[in-house]
């Protein structure tokens, strides 16, 4: 890929570029911050249940931290690209990489989870499995590609929809972000029928866009010159900026989930410290003497873990830069098939130990499994309350169908559209819910709580 042609200030919704003190990419960041979809991340589960006496990360705080790490990665890689490819870059490109790549990566990191439903990955599972479990009664309403979207529902593809779709009664183009920022979140740039169930192809492990956003994604791909691998089904190679967004996310959840678990008492101080020290030493051994001297001055356990967490993240940022530079050729031609943190893990036993420890002691902890089970059931039942009714012809709807559909806000009701559009409207509503709102609505429609909502 040509570094001169993989970025653009053009926006979804065909908005004309405007002159402003902020760059187009800084405005992307600000538009995301002020969006209602971003605010709702405050009450969406990251890993641990949100209620409790100890504050843990939610999707919003996680996204802010990923954006911070992403900005650092964008800065160091931007400088590298501006310097190392200066003979090949035009002046506009040199300025972009030196001063604006960090803004693109930060904006993309900020919205990388914006399409994730409530209750983490169990919310995604509930949506996909709802259609799988009701195939006999539902599949006939959809084309094969539409059905593939539904049974492979994925937060990454939903993010493109949330950020770009025109809801009923609203403006065209969604948040009107630049195509550069949108391309930077497309970890899996393929349609659902191209999904690689063997998971051997990193770029097709999941899906990147629904049929409803096919034309939008084609416009994104064309504007930043994504390499197209296949037209039928549509498969593209990742944009070079995606690797940095993915790395920022991987760095944060690997390290910060451990810190959260420590604050909750799930992970003891000694193994947590040992894992973090081992990681820092394996990627940045020269810094260890100073770190050990600093730790001698800190006696508070939470503060010790916070300090080591910061040092671990900084070490991984530096290692990610090194790996990105080593693999720049494969990144630009689209042939790289491992995430940057996976490459790091192959040469760093400490990172693999943290991942293994987290799976065994954190992600399988009872509190996490309980919220995943509860979230799955809440989301499944909400879908079952609305979808059978929305799929009936208006003339065939019984009173209970009409009562159910009155709960749908008007921007999510596509009565004149296809069954696919109608169902996506319901999914838009339910996937956008916070944990608390989804739970509250579930309790009310099931008669567990009865009272007035104003």
TrEMBL record:
InterPro entries: dGTP_triP_hydro_central_sf (IPR023293), dGTP_triphosphohydrolase_C (IPR027432), dGTPase (IPR006261), dGTPase-like (IPR050135), HD/PDEase_dom (IPR003607), HD_domain (IPR006674), PHydrolase_assoc_dom (IPR026875). It comes from Elizabethkingia argenteiflava. This is DNTP triphosphohydrolase. Residues 59-254 form the HD domain. GO terms for biological process: dGTP catabolic process. GO terms for molecular function: dGTPase activity. Keywords: Hydrolase. Pfam families: HD, HD_assoc. NCBIfam families: dGTP_triPase. Gene3D superfamilies: eoxyguanosinetriphosphate triphosphohydrolase domain-like (1.10.3550.10), Hypothetical protein af1432 (1.10.3210.10), putative deoxyguanosinetriphosphate triphosphohydrolase like domain (1.10.3410.10). The keyword Hydrolase applies.
């Amino acid at each position: 890929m040509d570094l001169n042609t993989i970025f653009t200030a053009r926006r979804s919704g065909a908005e004309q570029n405007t002159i402003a003190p902020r760059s187009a990419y800084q405005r992307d960041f600000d538009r995301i911050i002020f969006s209602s979809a971003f605010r709702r991340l405050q009450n969406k589960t990251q890993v641990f249940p949100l209620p409790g006496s100890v504050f843990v990360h939610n999707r919003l705080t996680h996204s802010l931290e990923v954006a911070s790490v992403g900005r650092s990665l964008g800065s160091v890689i931007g400088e590298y690209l501006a310097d190392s490819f200066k003979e090949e870059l035009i002046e506009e490109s040199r300025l972009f990489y030196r001063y604006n790549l960090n803004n693109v990566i930060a904006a993309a990191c900020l919205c990388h989870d914006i399409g994730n439903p409530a209750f983490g990955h169990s919310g995604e599972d509930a949506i996909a499995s709802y259609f799988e479990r009701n195939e006999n009664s539902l599949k006939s309403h959809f084309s094969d590609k539409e059905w593939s979207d539904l049974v492979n529902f994925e937060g990454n593809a939903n993010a493109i929809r949330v950020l770009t779709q025109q809801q009923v009664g609203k403006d065209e183009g969604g948040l009107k972000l630049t195509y550069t920022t949108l391309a930077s979140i497309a970890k899996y740039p393929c349609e659902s029928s191209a999904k690689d169930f063997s998971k051997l192809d990193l770029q097709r492990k999941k899906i990147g866009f629904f049929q409803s956003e096919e034309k939008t994604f084609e416009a994104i791909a064309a504007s930043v010159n994504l390499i197209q691998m296949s037209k039928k089904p549509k498969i593209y190679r990742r944009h070079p900026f995606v690797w940095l967004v993915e790395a920022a996310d991987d760095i944060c959840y690997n390290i910060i989930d451990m810190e959260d678990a420590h604050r909750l008492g799930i992970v003891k101080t000694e193994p947590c410290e040992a894992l973090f020290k081992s990681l820092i030493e394996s990627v940045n051994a020269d810094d260890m003497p100073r770190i050990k001297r600093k730790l001698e001055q800190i006696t508070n356990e939470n503060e010790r873990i916070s300090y080591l967490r910061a040092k671990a993240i900084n070490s991984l940022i530096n290692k990610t830069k090194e790996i990105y530079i080593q693999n720049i050729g494969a990144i630009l031609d689209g042939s790289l098939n491992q995430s940057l943190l996976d490459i790091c893990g192959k040469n760093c036993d400490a990172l693999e130990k943290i991942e293994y420890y987290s799976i065994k002691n954190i992600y399988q902890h009872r509190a996490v499994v309980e919220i995943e089970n509860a979230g799955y059931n809440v989301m499944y039942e909400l879908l079952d309350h609305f979808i059978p009714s929305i799929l009936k012809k208006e003339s065939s709807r019984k009173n209970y169908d009409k009562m159910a559909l009155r709960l749908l806000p008007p921007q999510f009701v596509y009565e004149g559209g296809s069954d696919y559009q109608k169902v996506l409207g319901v999914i838009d509503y339910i996937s956008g819910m916070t944990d608390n709102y989804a739970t509250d609505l579930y309790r009310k429609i099931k008669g567990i709580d009865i009272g007035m909502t104003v």
